[in-house]
Design a protein that fits this description.
The complex is a heterotrimer of chains A (about 240), B (about 290) and C (about 300). By secondary structure, chain B is of the alpha/beta class. Chain B folds into two domains: about 240 residues, Rossmann fold (3-Layer(aba) Sandwich); about 45 residues, no CATH class. Helix content of chain B is about 45%, strand content about 20%. Chain B has 13 helices and ten strands. The radius of gyration of chain B is 22 Å and the shape is globular. With about 300 residues, chain C is mostly helical. Chain C has two domains: about 180 residues, no CATH class; about 100 residues, no CATH class. Chain C has a two-stranded antiparallel ribbon. In chain C, about 35% of the residues are buried. The chains are: A mainly alpha (about 240), B alpha/beta (about 290), C mainly alpha (about 300).
Chain lengths: ~240, ~290, ~300
């Protein structure tokens, strides 16, 4: 039989290629097609273009995730170039943050599948500390937003703990991966926007909260549906709803 | 006898006015009566897919008329949802459209889209599954993608049957199936007409199944109806068919071959048993066999 | 979405085998020129620059003997939402140049239509055309294999740093090749699900969760189809003895000719002029000239 290493490389290249094609296709069709979901927020659209990146990372590993993030970033950058959206014409905003989507999504997926309950709880604890410091910083920017942010983060961590305590890890790993990947996208892109001076921190926080949450939910739904179907993972214990 | 479907001088051009402009239909005429099984055959690229996509409203008539159950499809006020309920279109390799994790959910997708209540949906799914030969309790909670290819195709077909359409259109139903499963499918299609009084339209390259099932055949070549008739009428014109790039069922081809070599045999035969009888009759084979033995 | 067939006829990734100066250029040179021109298109900030760019690009299209209609075909599916975007920009554009730089043409509530927003729209449309022509030029005059090889050779110095240039180029090639195929697949899936009564249309008040789940009948089969093709392609590649990029030689030998260097130099100078030449001042002059003319004409008519 073929050696494992070589075989995986070919598959990785090909999977990255076809998922890259999907990214290009969805992005190209724009809001007229399935690449965007209208949401009732100021930004109007939640993008689903990061979902193929997450799926690629889950199925084939961090390198494929990195490559897909690159494709996503380049596409986003080119699109901004045409439409004249100045903020995203900056490659540091459009491309650099996107490289990490796949890596964090994969890490979350791989790690969560194998960690025991206690390791997950410890992780939750450390996340709590990190988020606590973040909220503390946000307080200095705008008190109200910081409170909202704090509540949201708390809810997320609680959700994480809840997931961690279940038995069947596959499904939760997918949800977590989708959430982490989307969060990476949102947080890093907004950070770059603030760092490069395109957006004031308050606006970034608001955008992050209003658009970020729907995007997480959207991503998780799609990731679970697709990877669940491809790998045959049970998403509902009782079977169909008929 | 009522026409459930009528096509009159239908024309269609893809992407008119663009560099990719392509004329696909150049005047198709067709008529289907209630309870018939009508087959559409033709070489690749003859416009068959374009034609059948008119029947459930995916494509609107650009020029010419299409009437389904009395409704003119050029009418702007056409209720497309009603049309989709009446005309069930099953695409080639329909198993590729499955998306739900569980079989029951995917089949229920159609009825749910039309706002049917929960008990009604369940009833329909059950009936559809039984029609295709998938036990309701046994399969409804199975994971869709863990089934075999043939089973997945049955699920996809059940998904359309659950809408209980009056007219069923199958695009290459036996494509990619092994002969046993293909045979099973074909008898199920006949059952749909016989037991449930549905009208069936069949697009196929498999001449054997067409010969077996169809009451009438339309031959479409380059976007035009060129021949129409019963299977016997159509397949006995082997030379004409070949000029269109089509073949008759293999058995019929054998008979044509025999006639070509000077044997006086009938060529309007469609099945092996008919051929056997005809050859036996013509060449007195059994008698000769008896003589040899003796 | 009643016009289903537009998706599968994307021009991106399709090669038209005419014979022209542009076709014969080395793909590496073409890629570099493409990048330079993309930069020029993106950062050109004046009408003059944009118009000049457009004119030059149209000239190159003519040079390549490609019919213009093919080059612009890619715009078709994108048109509706470009129009929406343009409208949004028109209504909500906030100018970063300070309040004195733009003259307000029409104001209503918080909607300001200024000369700047119109300018932005105009530039955007020009940029769109230019970009479409650029990318069509590249893909219509260069075979996919040439593009892949060109990209790979350009990135090959990075191989020394263990950068997988060959693999990356292959990924791009596969993406390009499968985009139209998957578009056709998407169209097929849409039709099949629509035949079952699925509704993908815009329905304002639906919660976005519901709408996401409405998209699953499209997205799940699309992804699965893509992944299945990936499996097939992997098998096919391995069956033909593909073992990765190490020590891999190529049937296509790329040679750089003097004409390539010449073309490169021309493009480089051209882009430099566009980006650095301060063409905004010409804008102003043209604008004043035109408005002078216009007021003269109006004055004449009024008399």
């Amino acid at each position: 039989m073929q050696s494992g290493g070589r075989r995986s490389t070919v598959r990785k290249i090909v999977v990255a290629g076809v998922l890259g094609a999907i990214i290009t296709l969805l992005g190209y069709l724009g809001p007229a097609g399935p690449g965007f979901i209208p949401v009732p927020t100021p930004a109007q659209h939640a993008t689903t273009l990061h979902v193929p990146v997450i799926i690629g990372a889950i199925l084939e590993g961090p390198i494929v995730g990195l490559v897909l993030g690159l494709i996503f970033g380049i596409f986003s950058w080119l699109q901004a170039g045409i439409l004249g959206v100045v903020m995203f014409q900056d490659p540091l905003v459009a491309i650099l943050p996107r490289l990490f989507i796949g890596i964090t999504a994969w890490a979350a997926y791989a790690a969560f599948r194998r960690t025991g309950k206690y390791a997950a709880l410890i992780l939750a604890g450390s996340l709590l500390v990190i988020c606590g410091t973040f909220v503390y910083w946000a307080l200095s920017v705008n008190a109200l937003l910081a409170v909202v942010l704090g509540i949201v983060l708390l809810a997320l961590i609680a959700g994480f703990v809840f997931l961690a305590l279940r038995e069947n890890r596959e499904l939760q790993a997918l949800i977590l991966s989708g959430a982490v990947g989307t969060l990476t996208n949102t947080i890093l892109v907004l950070t770059m926007l603030v760092v490069r001076g395109y957006l004031p921190p308050e606006a970034a926080l608001v955008a992050g909260l209003t658009n970020g949450i729907p995007e997480i939910i959207v991503a998780c739904i799609i990731v679970v549906a697709v990877v669940g179907a491809w790998k045959g993972i049970e998403t509902r214990r009782a079977g169909s709803t008929v | 006898m009522t026409h459930v479907l009528e096509v009159e001088d239908l024309h269609h051009t893809y992407l008119p006015g663009s560099p990719f402009e392509a004329v696909s239909l150049r005047g198709v005429n067709m008529r289907v009566e209630e309870g018939e099984i009508v087959a559409i055959i033709g070489p690749t690229g003859s416009g068959k897919s374009t034609l059948i996509q008119h029947f459930n409203g995916l494509i609107r008539p650009q020029k010419g008329k299409v009437l389904v159950l009395g409704q003119d499809l050029s009418d702007h006020s056409l209720d497309v949802k009603w049309l989709r309920r009446q005309v069930g279109l099953i695409f080639q390799t329909p198993e590729q459209q499955l998306f739900e994790q569980y079989v029951g959910d995917d089949i229920a997708f159609g009825p749910r889209n039309f706002g049917l209540g929960r008990p009604e949906v369940r009833q329909r799914v059950k009936k559809a599954m039984e029609t295709v030969g998938l036990g309701f309790e046994e399969f409804k909670d199975r994971m869709t993608f863990s089934l075999s290819g043939g089973e997945m195709r049955k699920v996809a077909i059940a998904g359309v049957l659950a809408l209980e359409p009056t007219i069923l259109i199958f695009d290459e139903p036996t494509c990619g199936l092994d002969p046993a499963t293909a045979s099973e499918f074909l008898s199920k299609i006949r059952e749909l007409r016989d037991q449930e009084e549905r009208t069936v339209i069949l697009v196929s390259h498999d001449m054997e199944s067409v010969a077996k099932l169809a009451d009438r055949i339309y031959v479409i070549v380059q976007g035009r109806t060129v021949l129409e008739g019963t299977p016997r009428q159509i397949f006995s014109q082997s030379g004409l068919l070949r000029s269109y790039g089509l073949d008759a069922p293999q058995v019929t081809q054998v008979m044509h071959g025999l006639r070509h070599r000077g044997r006086e045999v009938r060529v309007d035969l469609l099945s092996v048993s008919e051929a056997e009888k005809e050859i036996g009759r013509r060449f007195d084979l059994r008698q000769r066999q008896a003589e040899t033995v003796a | 979405m009643t016009e289903y067939s537009a998706f599968s006829h994307l021009t991106i990734g399709q090669y038209l085998p005419y014979s022209s100066v542009v076709h014969r250029l080395d793909p590496r040179a073409k890629l570099v020129m493409f990048t330079l021109l993309v930069a020029a298109v993106t950062f050109a900030n004046s009408y003059t620059a944009s118009v000049v760019l457009l004119a030059v690009l149209l000239g190159v299209v003519h040079l390549s003997r490609t019919p213009l209609r093919y080059a612009l075909q890619g715009l078709r599916p994108a048109l509706p939402w470009i129009a929406v975007f343009a409208l949004l920009q028109l209504l909500f554009y906030r100018n970063p140049y300070g309040p004195d730089a733009c003259s307000t043409i029409w104001s209503w509530g918080f909607i300001d239509i200024t000369s700047c927003s119109i300018r932005q729209i105009g530039l955007m449309i020009l940029r769109l055309l230019e970009f479409m022509i650029l990318i069509s030029l590249l893909t219509l005059t260069t075979r996919t294999t040439e593009l892949t090889h060109g990209l790979e050779r350009l990135l090959s110095p990075l191989k020394r740093l263990r950068f997988p240039a060959h693999e990356l180029a292959l990924v791009f090639a596969i993406s390009l090749r499968f985009a139209p195929t998957l578009a056709g697949e998407l169209e097929r899936i849409m039709k099949a699900q629509a035949s079952r009564g699925a509704d993908f249309g815009e329905q304002g008040r639906l919660g976005f969760i519901k709408r996401t789940r409405n998209l699953l009948p499209l997205l799940v089969p699309l992804f699965l189809s893509a992944l299945r093709r990936a499996e097939d392609l992997t098998l096919a590649m391995e069956a033909r003895g593909y073992t990765g990029g190490r020590g891999r030689t190529s049937f296509i030998q790329l040679k750089v000719l003097p004409s390539d260097y010449l073309a490169l130099a021309l493009v480089f100078i051209f882009c430099a002029i566009i980006l650095l030449g301060g063409l905004e001042s010409i804008d102003q002059q043209v604008f004043t000239a035109v408005s002078d003319c216009a007021s003269n004409v109006f004055g004449f008519v009024r008399r």
